[in-house]
Amino acid sequence: MTRVMRSSTRKRTEISLASNKRSVVKAVQNKSKVVPVNPDLNTSEVAVVDKIQDESTTTTMTAEPEESARSTDKMEIKAEQDEESAQNKCLAISIPPEIFIEICKNLPPADLLRLARTCKTFHAWLSSKESVTTQRIWAASRKEFVRYLTLPPPRGMDEIAYIRLALEKGCQICGAKLVRKIYWAFRARICGSCFQRKTITNHDIKTDARFKRRNTRNILAGLPFVDAHVFRRLGNRRYYWIDDVLENAKTYKSLPSKKRQDWLIKRQKKGAKLMRNARALEMAFLREERIRSIELRGLLLAKREELHKRTEIMAQTKDASNNFYDIDRLRRCASYQKAYKRPYPLTDRAWNMLYRKLVKEYI
Ligand SMILES: [Zn+2]
Question: Which stretch is the leader sequence (predicted)?
Answer without folding.
Answer: none
